[in-house]
Amino acid sequence: MDSRETIMDAGEVAVVLDELVSEISNGVGDARDLAAIGIHTRGIPLARRIVDRIAESTGAQIELGSVGITLYRDDLGTRFPKPLVQDTSIDFDVEDKRILLVDDVLFTGRTVRAALDEIVDFGRPARIELAVLIDRGHRELPIQPDYVGRRIATGRDAMLKLRLHEVDGEDKVELIRAAEG
Known about the structure:
The protein is α/β, with parallel strands linked by helices and 181 residues long.
């Protein structure tokens, strides 16, 4: 049986998200040419929360989309014999837009690489910046976030699971370790 430990409760998730939104707001400057794209599954509600908070503070109406990266994965045939294909919804022109790509936990970089591949199939953005709530390290590709809520070091055999109210009914981060033996 796996061992689970809550390492961030709902209050801590809220504080980290506030800090992340502040960092993004300071980094993007004028948000009028900004659009956000969340990566399925938990990147979408995170992107929604970020967009809503930036809109509250700036009045900017930021377009929001989502990418389902299943068909762009480089391990599709080996790791996912019967993959769940998730919809992509980008209902705006990405050409020359500044895109804020949002994901929950950054690990190897392969999910982000797949999302980038899909986004550029829609056009050529002026810039794509990456925002993640948690960066746990262990990159396999040269991908680094522009905006990070928290850096949490883990072993490669452990897993960080962000739970969000919109998907899971609660906000928290769990550290999951495989049972020994």
